[in-house]
Amino acid sequence: MNFSALRTPMRLRMLATLGVLALLVALFLPGPGLNLINLVDESTNGSTHKPGTGEAFTVLPEDQHFFDAQGSDTGQLHPCAGRDLLYHSHIDAGYVTRNDQGNLDVMAVNNTKVIAQDSACMRLGPDNHNGVEVSRFVVPNDPALSFLGAPGSIVWRAPFENYGNRWLPIWAGLGAFDPHHEWKVPTDFVANSVQLDLVEFEGPGDMNIYNYLPQWDRATRIIGSQDLRSTSLGVGGHGHMNWTFSQPGVYKLAWQAQGRHYDGSVERSAPVTQYWLVGEDSHVGLLPGTTQGIGNYGKRAETIRQEMGLSEPTGEPAKVVLSEQAPKLESEEVKAMVEREYFETDPPIGSGDVVVDVGYTGKELLKDPEVTLKTHVDGKTLENAVVIEVPDSATKCIAPNDPYLSNFARAAGSRLVWMTGTPGGPTPSYAFDTSDLDLAQLSEQQVIVEPGVNTPRGGVYAMGAGDGDRFASIATNANSTSTPLQLLGAQRHNVQYMMSRPGVYTEDGSVRVFHKTDPRYEFYSPIFLVGNQVINQWRQRAGVKERLPETQPSCEAAPQLSGWDPYAPELVDAPEDPPTQPDETTAPETSEAPVVEETEQPSEEVEEVEEVEEPTETTSTPEPEVPALHRIRSGHLDMALGTIDGNALAYLKDESDPANPVRRESGTFFIVVPQRAWHDDASALELDDFADGAFVLPEVQDRRMPWPGISNEAFDFQAVHPDYPTTDFSIASVLSAPQGGRLVLSASEDMKVKRQLDSADPSASIALPAFTHAHKAFWFNKPGTYEVRFAYSWVNKQGQTEQAFLDTTFEVGNLPKEEEVVEETTEPTATQKPVPPQPTSEKPQTPKQPQTSPAQPQATQPQTTKPQAAQPQTTKQPQTPKQPQAAQPQAAPPKAVPPRPAAVPKAGSTPAPPKAAAMPRPAPPLPANAPLAQGPKPPLSRQAAQEGSLEVWRGVLLGVGGFSLLLALVVYLYSRRSKTD
Fold it and tell me: Where is the composition biased (Low complexity) (predicted)?
């Protein structure tokens, strides 16, 4: 008998069985070609949101009854019965997302956990910080806050300020599809925005949600229960703000969200009820002591009011009266305004249709793609900056109690407005023309215009769509209903500007073209001369002889203007040829590590800087290539500390594209602080170096600028000494800066600026409790390049101090193209007044990259320059200080020192020369699968990061699945070979 003949079929059957088993393993476990994220989602019970943790200090029983103010049981069930009371925590009280059924919803976030609104109630009770009440607020004698009540009024407030990083009494915000909580951030909403509406409101008083910083000239109103019940939220973001309630008690709110998609459909959520319990337990239907761990008043608001020199208002609140007549400006005021903004350009445009042609060059030989903007008036191309006249004859009067424009009128304090024209009218019109774009090459976002109008003090503007008698406000600084303009279709898009008072309005906006593989942007910067007084002064300065009659227009003679619903179907441009979905296989390769295992699409806000070669001496050793830095112009950023593969690393968490967050290593990026960040008044800092003003990145997000914060959410605090459960954030050294340049980080506290870090005081630091994320204001007194080394420090379990460093470059202001890179000198030179924002028709130039030397490391010498008095200026505009060269690396790592408590430099003190810190040992490269904001479970559940075990299981399942698939392939090939044998 031939036994070998029997063994061959048996062997083949065994191999076939083994191959089938391996293939089944590969199919049922994540492996190559399978959707890893979906399978992991199934392991989390199909949840739409990433896992998170939160804590409630008080949970009301299911049968909780409502008690009256005297403590008597009313027999009625409390509206918060069976719910968690949320306070002393980070809360997104209104969070627009999709629920587990895939429907648009308004949920909430308790610390890091997304929850349903019917599971919790917001609790705003008595609390104090350092013995001073923070749960109630005295309305100051400030017209910008008149919407809160008369000066001296006391309102309950959940403050924007994060007092001592303890979330007192409740740190509440709003958000939409935040990537910290979402497996996938949607990209199909028009203008990347959704709308949140307060559709119902019941309570004993009024509610207002707003933000207001000391350097602002007005508050940003977000929601007002009386007159402002809609706000716009950027998809992929969140922020914190002040919530005020005029009286204690139980407030019932109903929220509804909506967003428009690119196909024109509008997606709306069902109304969702939310409760706020404001005041003492006896004020909100609870017995005293029910709310556990709640604080006390400390120094009460009544005492604070007395110290402010205010008293309790009596009588009825003063009625807000809106002006119906244009203000008469003093001639000296107009002359100073025009002189400040004037520069040589073409004569101002008094009529015609101003059209900006939007183009995209595509990839040409040896050139990068770019967006092109060409402006013409009635077919005549303009080479210089565009100055547009908006005369008194273009005034209109907002209709009384108009449901769409009354908020603008209230913010402006006037119903009288100036309007740019419509095509063919007597006043210049404005439009963007996208006819030359190939829609087939664009993603579904096509083109977005992000306006940025700099107004005269007290001025309010809006940009939107209109037909002469009606106007839809889309982008505005009047309140938070502002969104970018979405341009869909290859056609002309007519827009209108609306301004509230005479003056010079300068535009600093951007046009983003969303090419499938290379999204890019360009800037446009028209100037608007509003009012005949201003027009005549500019004409005189420009040598134009004609003058306009200087009248004082009023609503009596002006046509009436009505509002228009921005969601009206007739305002939506339908794409002529709907573009196909981006082909992910053609996406450019990248070395960045995104949050999820997907090909990273390049963000339109991040652009690589072209490297500029500089002459060097002839040498046999070639110069090493300087890697291109990533330019970041806008979006949410975190200077983060994380633990990756057991190593503590500092890096930048870049969420400028919320759908594709990217981790950037130390020294590989620079943050642009644009000209629009300039503030003439920086007196809140009380520092002589900032007497002329400052470039400011605010702690409240401005979507036109970067929004940097600090975070230790991804750090492993199990490795920290239990007696020191914090990390310190500080400025280790300034590697280079413009002559006399100074950087200050601040936070707002009690409506005042509190300096926390100062480049002139290296001893200062910010203590961050475990798993904290916070934003600060960044102040720069000079334009130029700042290379700053930030440091995180902590005490390990052995009692030793460890540090991690993050080198960050800030490009402040627009540097001229011909500006040379020079070494900083230690010789005393005169300080120079910084250049305030100036309108320009040119694209801001890319700064030159600092050159590094292959020579031995050298220690950087401390700065010895002494501040000098500013010299009289002989030219109209001072020149921008020259960009310094980066300091050389230093010899040895610094000795570890214990974390320092946060120190604040004394007001008016002379800045000490910054000390150069030693160069730390370079951090190892970040692995491709390193998490951005994930770490081990914290000891305190209310300060929890996202669960790190998910990443481990992803790796294990991917490895098993890949091995199984490979084994099945090997068995199959071997069996085929055996058959042929």
Answer: 582-594, 617-626, 840-890
Alpha helices in 902-948 (DSSP H): none
- Note whether 923 and 649 are within 8 A (CB): yes
The secondary structure of residue 166, as a DSSP letter, is S
When the pLDDT of each residue in the chain is averaged and rounded to a whole number, the result is 78
Kindly state the helix (H) or strand (E) to which residue 28 belongs, with its residue range: helix 3-28
pTM of the predicted structure, to 2 decimals: 0.67
**How long, in residues, is the chain?**
981
Q: Which two tokens mark 665?
A: 């290593």
Tokens of 978: 């055996």
Name residue 158's beta-bridge partners: 243
Output the six-digit token pair for 701.
């997000």
Could you tell me the pLDDT band of residue 884, with boundaries at 50, 70 and 90? very low
3-state secondary structure (DSSP) of residue 607: strand
Is residue 308 within 8 A of residue 112, CB to CB? The reply is: no
Geometric angle at alpha carbon 884, from 622 and 846, rounded to 5°? 80
**Rg of the chain, C-alpha, whole Å:** 30
Instruction: In whole angstroms, give the CA distance from residue 702 to residue 716.
Output: 31
CA distance linking residue 478 with residue 476, whole number of Å: 5
State the helix-helix crossing angle for 3-28 and 949-980, rounded to 10 degrees: 150
Is the CA virtual torsion 494, 499, 505, 507 positive or negative?
Answer: negative
- The separation between CA 180 and the C-alpha centre of its own chain, rounded to angstroms, equals 14
Half-sphere exposure (CA, 13 Å, Cβ side) for 109? 31
Judged against a pLDDT cut of 70, whether residue 541 lies above it is answered with yes
Q: Do 746 and 763 touch, CB atoms closer than 8 A?
A: no
Confidence of residue 677 (pLDDT cuts 50, 70, 90): confident
Which one-letter amino acid corresponds to residue 606? V
Neighbouring-strand partners of residue 497: 463
Confidence band, pLDDT 50/70/90 cuts, at residue 85: very high
Strand pairing category for 678-679 and 694-697: antiparallel
Of 923 and 103, the one with more pLDDT: 103
